[in-house]
Design a protein that fits this description.
The complex is a heterodimer of chains A (189) and B (170).
Chain A (H helix, E strand, L loop, with lengths): L1 H9 L4 H20 L2 H11 L17 H21 L6 H12 L22 H19 L8 H4 L5 H11 L1 H8 L1 H4 L3
Chain B lengths: L2 H11 L2 H11 L3 H17 L10 H23 L21 H17 L2 H11 L5 H8 L3 H23 L1
Helix pairs in contact in B: 2-3, 2-4, 3-4, 4-7, 5-8, 6-8, 7-8
The chains are: A mainly alpha (189), B mainly alpha (170).
Chain lengths: 189, 170
């Protein structure tokens, strides 16, 4: 009822036009009925290679547009993420520690005669002993040799804030990597 | 063809004249409409597993008819550049009364000319309504549009056709 009322509101097709359409449909239907539509359709159904009920096979080049669009969006997001959120170059702190480590004598040249004390005594572990050994050796080398700026025990390890230390230890993991190098040799890291 | 296939085939064929009428509204002439009608039934028969509501079989078929006709138009536009004036020419052959052939054929020619000039969205809603006699609810479901949109498009289409017919009559 509502739709009929609305139809009246929006206006019907003029009667003359409706008559023309009806005349066209009637003429077309007469011709349609006179033809043998059903049997021709049946023969086309039989002759068509696409069997009824079977969907046409998907071809490889008909990749769904959504999939392609999704891949493009993912690639764009990855590019943006790398460009915007990528960590900047190592800060000055890691450059400093790299410089310091570079100045240290090689591990192979050290006299590794330190034996770890039993852990029950609460003494530092082997890795701690190696680090202290390295520092002492470097300090000794610095004091006995020609003046090497910045190699005094005081300056060997720059002072870092807790955040910087965490970043170096867990972010850049330089110390961990250095100790991992000798993992097999000492059996402990 | 199994017995079940045959039953579906029969049920689909019950609506062949409705499908033909919609194809006629979209096509240049009855001959093209019949070819399109064949295509519609071939497609429909291949997609019978997509029938969810057997009660809405007619609407489902007319939806296939709509997409088939639109595809046909697109293909034809790609393949040739037939002018709109050429489209309804052969439809005059469908009016078979010798006495009234000139006037009736001219009316049909002008009507099809006016429909062919409509924008696609208006044309499809007009044809489905006037040739397919779909209700507003069915139109809304078939075209996936709100009823208000269907009505406004239909109104614009009717006005445009009436105006074009008046102009060509003058």
């Amino acid at each position: 009822m509502i739709n009929q009322a609305k139809e009246k509101q929006i206006g019907d097709l003029p009667e003359r036009l409706r008559l023309i359409i009806n005349r066209e449909i009637e003429g077309g239907l007469e011709r349609f009925r006179s033809g043998d539509f059903e049997s021709r359709l049946a023969s086309r159904l039989k002759s068509t290679p696409q069997k009824a009920g079977v969907r046409p096979e998907r071809r490889w080049f008909r990749i769904p547009a959504l999939g392609a669009a999704g891949a493009a969006v993912l690639a764009l997001v990855a590019i943006l993420w790398l460009g915007v959120f990528r960590r900047p170059a190592p800060p000055a702190a890691s450059r400093a520690i790299g410089l310091t480590l570079g100045r240290l004598p090689g591990f192979r040249s050290l006299d590794i005669s330190v034996r770890p004390e039993p852990p029950s005594s609460g003494a530092p572990s082997l890795s701690t002993a190696i680090v202290s050994r390295v520092l002492v050796s470097a300090a000794h080398e610095a004091s006995s040799g020609p003046a090497a700026p910045g190699l005094s025990p005081k300056n060997l390890v720059p002072r870092y804030s807790l955040q910087q230390k965490i970043e170096i230890l867990f972010g850049h993991r330089m110390i961990e990597r250095a100790l991992s190098t000798y993992k097999n040799k000492f059996g402990e890291v | 063809m199994t017995a079940s296939d045959d039953a579906i085939f029969r049920r689909l064929l019950d609506f062949r004249e409705d499908v033909f009428a919609v194809c006629l509204g979209m096509a240049r002439n009855a001959s093209d409409a019949e070819d399109l009608c064949h295509d519609v039934f071939l497609k429909a028969f291949a997609r019978t597993d997509g029938i969810r509501r057997p009660g809405a079989l007619r609407v489902w078929l007319l939806r296939i008819a709509r997409t088939t006709c639109l595809d046909h138009h697109r293909r034809r536009r790609r393949l040739s550049t037939v002018s709109v004036e050429d489209l309804p020419e052969s439809s005059t052959a469908d009016i078979r009364t010798p006495a009234s052939i000139s006037a009736a054929a001219e009316d049909v020619r002008r009507l099809k000319d006016a429909i062919a000039r409509l924008p696609r969205k208006q044309r499809e809603v007009l044809v489905l309504r006037e040739y397919g006699e779909l209700s507003y609810e069915d139109l809304s479901r078939t075209l996936n549009l709100r009823p208000g949109t269907v009505m406004s498009r239909l109104n614009r289409a009717r006005l445009a056709v009436a105006s074009a017919m008046e102009e060509s009559h003058d």
